Amino acid sequence: MMKKLLIACFSLWFFSSYAQETYYVNGVKDERPGLHAFTNATLHVDYKTTLESATLIIKKGEVIAAGTNVSIPKGAIIHDLGGKHIYPSFIELSNNYGLPEVKSQRSNGPQLGPKKEGAYNTNDAIITYFNAYEAFTAKDSEAEKLRKAGFGTVLTHNKDGLIRGTGAVVALHDGPENEIILKEKASQHFSFDKGSSTQDNPSSLMGAIALIRQNYLDAKWYASQNEMVDISLAAFNKNKAHPQIFEVGGDKLYVLRADHLGDEFGVQYIIKGNGDEYQRLDEIGATNASLIIPVNYPEAYDVEDPFDALNVSLAEMKHWEMAPYNLKMLKDKGINFSITADGLKDVSKLQEMLSKSIEVGFSEEEALKALTITPARLIKMDDRLGSLSKGKIANFIITDGSPVQKGTKIYENWVQGNGYKYHDIASPDLAGKYDLSVGEQEYNLMVSGKSGSEDFKIVINDSTSYKLKSDIKKQLISLSFTDEENESIGAVRMSGWLTKDGLAGKARIADGSWVEWSARKNADNEESEEVKEKSPDDEESESIGNLIYPFVAHGNETKPKSETILIKNATVWTNEEDGVLENTDVLLENGKISKIGKNLSASNAREIDGTGKHLTPGIIDEHSHIAISRGVNEGSESVTAEVNIEDVVDSEDINIYRQLSGGVVASQLLHGSANPIGGRSAIVKLKWGYSPEEMKISWSDKFIKFALGENVKQSNWGERNTVRFPQTRMGAEQVFEDAFTRAREYEAEWKSYNQLSKRDQANTAAPRKDMELETLVEILNSDRFITCHSYVQSEINMLMKVAERHGFRINTFTHILEGYKLADKMKEHGVGGSTFSDWWAYKFEVNDAIPYNAALMSGEGVVTAINSDDAEMGRRLNQEAGKTMKYGDVPVEEALKMVTLNPAKLLHLDDRMGSIKEGKDADVVLWTDEPLSIYAKADKTIIEGTVFFDREEQEAKLDAIQAERARLVNKMRGAKSNGKPTQKVMPKSQIIYECETEIQNYSSLK
């Protein structure tokens, strides 16, 4: 039978020494000086300075002496710690302690303007005027949880909105707010999450970034003018003097986005990350940002059911394994960071999380640094917090060991010289094996863990059949249990005390008689446990997989690098006057097409046999929505030219790799079609494993998305969406007219200002810089070019006339399913067409679409491309181009140009891309068959001389993925069998964006 003794320690009480009261007290005032001396301590003055047999003296909440030869002042209360440890209390930089709860709200319909009345910002997500110290109310129940975990100070701040106002540094003491607020305005806070605002704008991540960017520009303008009052901008300008902290959410790429935004305005943010920074260490290290790092490491997934295991991605599995390594890898990279408990469901788990990181190589010293002096420095309070030198605030914890190791007991936490007691310092360490006697009955007793801790338990005779209760107070102990196997003993109630050899006392048994009991210690648990040999499973559990770039399936352990490559004996489709060259060699060197010819040779080149294969320029997708984070539409307003897809490029999207497998080398990532004038686009090369910045084609011209038709007038958005202008096609025309009229007036205003002399400019307020109008002026001056979502002939004609009236031209009509009706007018205007091969009848305005559209536009002399607008179609654009041969008898070489050279022309990339010509970028695809055949497969996709997809390696890569998944599944199963907590598998699906994808709750997306 199993017998078990469950121990619970009820030794918690509170005591404090009072500082001088500066507030109303109903009763007798206690004005004692709070003078305490803590002696015989192992004193950790800071994270790297330890003094043995030391003394700490505090008075009125301040350290007045700390050292080994310290005289104890007369009248001090002496606390003999008997060798216990004193550490500085921890500092938490990411918490909203003591602030009003942020309540999520639901909108009853479109909300175009702000709800907040007064001279404030026109967007409810800009809350710069909020000051945490004004709204702060101490809540001891919340403070108690943090104190028990070792925290003494919190930077409390509003966790709502994009720009959130100022944070206040507060002590976790239960005194009056007047005394525990240590610094009223210590920081200004930012986020990409608009929070509780129900205002439509922003409805996307790029919209949030644009709004913050515009706020910076407005604040600069506001400081130079005296014509208006804006409480929000005035507060923002004042708050710029404090440390700027950005809570990014999302993943590691958001750290890069925040830093990039700060760089635009000369601001170095302190960035609260997400715990996955190890996945992009080089890029994050290059930001030079200090980070606030959570340690909410994920639990293993419950993958006992093999079908459940299929619903856990490789990235999720690998992050479970590698998350505890994050701190060590950040430290090894030389990145400065503090640690936060934010994100933990239970702050008491902090020690456990830190122990995991320490087990894999992160040092205790660095953990202490990241919890004490580093956060103090980040908020410019290291003169008062973070260590226990003379003059510092008396915030410290008393422990029986390192507070960053699991199982360490925090006896007391002193905050501003006020003590909070959680365990009796005099309570002994009872862990070990005992011989227990109760009267004539003998038992084997084992005590494990530390009294008062969660893992403290007593087991009798190696069994758990009996439930036992205990109460330990100082040197006294009470136990009770029932021995159901021995009627003469039965229910036992024991009371005793500590002895030299263990425990002893009196017990009353079932028949009411009193007997003696004793427990004599015979071994420490560690000494008595047998050393177990490691099993293969144990060895497996200690292994760890490799980092991959990007951190998803099909990522590479090293980033692919450019090579010198000689492709021999291929059929080369040049897209130039040379046409198709049989049995031809192509040399790729230094990222360029170096030579084209026969019998070429090159030293140190990697030779690829192209015999029987076909080499073409890489496919270019003029219209794509892959690789975009948290929303493809900013549809909250009719004109959103200020938003930019470049801000939200997602280098981790698996669709990048999938499209590489279909021969795509570059894409224009477009805003959606929710409004007449949408956002600016990003033109990228699909460099799998590289960062977003490395993917962008830096030398390309700039583009923007316009839209016409049903989406613009919200035809299919439901009956609630009848507020935002326009609601008709003729209204869309007026949006364009109004926008470009305002842009001309804006340009004239700036020209007038810029023509002033320097002296006059110094005495004249500059016009307000408006990112929306700046972008429209770029269009007017042919510095930015339009790709317009279009279907219906009348609207296509209308927009060309609007452009001509304002002196510019439309660059590309995309979709353009009725282009065949006015191809002559398109030719005359000079606009290209990027269309689908054979999509039609999926909504009313495409009923007149025909599969001959591309052939008819091309025949009229319009530069015509075939695009995807769809992640799945994007990897078979070669076949889509092939359809034009069936519908319209387009020659094969011209059909190929529709997905290579023609989109390059439409995107103004054709001087370097779109054809195989010496000097152009080495962006090519080697196909297994004729490139437009349904049997053709991309054998190798090469960008700038770097092989990003290799079909020969694909089978080995799939085997490696399967093996890695199997290893991680076994490791998770092992964690579960060893009693570790697991989480339920929740299937996740990726949102595949298209033109019409409109997401309101963008904060819930990656």
From TrEMBL:
Residues 1-19 form the signal peptide. Residues 520-543 are annotated as: Disordered. GO terms for molecular function: hydrolase activity, acting on carbon-nitrogen (but not peptide) bonds. Residues 951-978 form a coiled coil. Residues 525-542 have a biased composition (Acidic residues). Keywords: Coiled coil, Signal. It holds the Pfam family Amidohydro_1. Residues 314-411, 860-940 form the Amidohydrolase-related domain. The keyword Transmembrane helix does not apply. This is Amidohydrolase family protein.
